[in-house]
Automatic annotation (TrEMBL):
Residues 5-230 form the ABC transporter domain. InterPro entries: AAA+_ATPase, ABC_transporter-like_ATP-bd, ABC_Transporter_VariousFunc, P-loop_NTPase. CDD domains: ABC_DR_subfamily_A. GO terms for molecular function: ATP binding; ATP hydrolysis activity. Keywords: ATP-binding, Nucleotide-binding, Transport. It holds the Pfam family ABC_tran. This is ABC transporter related protein.
């Protein structure tokens, strides 16, 4: 199956920051999560995919094309959901919809009304009168109403209450069922990705730390805990992001290295938060 987007060796330099040799793909029929700490390069990468920035080196292929002379055709196939939807506050929901719909050749009014009604977004209400959650649901309804093949989402569940977050996640899981669409989901709420993501891209300091199946990443590591007296140089070399306490230690270890730590160590499955925290905050010990 054709990948929706392929980045190959993409670099972009700003003052004090460099996106370096970024390579990954966004697969059709799947939800790909994009994680990393603030300042790691997530927003820059999304802007590059959206053609709002241009790479200094490397290539970006969208639906098999890296020549964007037909940029309008390519962008017609992409729906984008911002963390803070850029709508005019004094326009009503229906007025904003009319403006947005004019940009898309495949706008589907029936689909839009179905999503709007399902989300209970009032068409006659001004944008400034909508709650944060309602604005996000409206933004998602717009993104899904022109039959986009790729949905790019930048922090779509940030600041939302658990009920609305669950509604959105369930909708995204339904959207992906036709196996023709791809969803790229950038978020710092890793529990959302644990629930729905198939693949993960982990970026840190402008470099890709991991790109692959979510379950494979979770299976590759264990959170380990043990008494301080076993913290020999050999044990420290195995651990990532060691944290010592008054009674013991905790860290991240490759799953296949856990037996080498001995029977006094307790090993538990990690969360995505654990993996990101220990990778970002800690370095392998010498």
């Amino acid at each position: 199956m054709e990948d929706a987007v392929i980045l190959d060796g993409v670099c972009k330099t700003f003052r004090g920051f460099r996106l370096e040799n970024v390579s990954f793909s966004i697969k059709k029929g799947y939800i790909t999560g994009f994680i990393g700490p603030n300042g790691s390069g997530k927003t820059t990468t999304i802007k590059l995919i959206m053609n709002l920035l241009h790479p200094d080196a490397g290539t970006i292929r969208r639906f098999g094309q890296n020549d964007l002379r037909n940029n309008r055709t390519v962008m017609n196939r992409i729906g984008f959901v911002y963390a803070e939807p850029p709508f005019y506050d004094d326009l009503t929901v229906e007025q904003v919809k009319t403006v947005v719909a004019a940009f898309y050749s495949k706008w589907d009014e029936t689909a839009y009304r179905r999503y709007r009604d399902a989300f209970e977004v009032p068409g006659d209400r001004k944008i400034k009168a909508l709650s944060t959650g309602m604005k996000m649901k409206f933004s998602i309804a717009l993104a899904l109403s022109h039959h986009a093949d790729l949905i790019l989402m930048d922090e779509p569940t940030s600041g939302l209450d658990p009920v609305i977050r669950r509604e959105i996640l369930e909708l995204l899981s339904e959207v992906i069922q036709d196996e023709e669409k791809a969803i790229f989901f950038s978020t710092h709420i890793t529990t959302d990705l644990e629930r729905i993501a198939d693949y993960l891209i982990f970026i840190h300091r402008g470099r890709i730390v991991y790109s692959g199946e979510k379950d494979r990443l979770l299976e590759a590591y264990r959170v380990v805990k043990g008494p301080r007296e076993i913290l020999t140089p050999g044990v420290k070399r195995i651990l990532i992001g060691l944290r010592e306490t008054g009674v013991g230690f905790e860290g991240l270890a490759p799953t296949d290295s856990v037996p080498a730590l001995g029977k006094q160590v307790l090993a538990e499955p990690p969360s995505l938060d654990d993996i990101m925290l220990y990778t970002v905050k800690g370095e392998p010990h010498a």
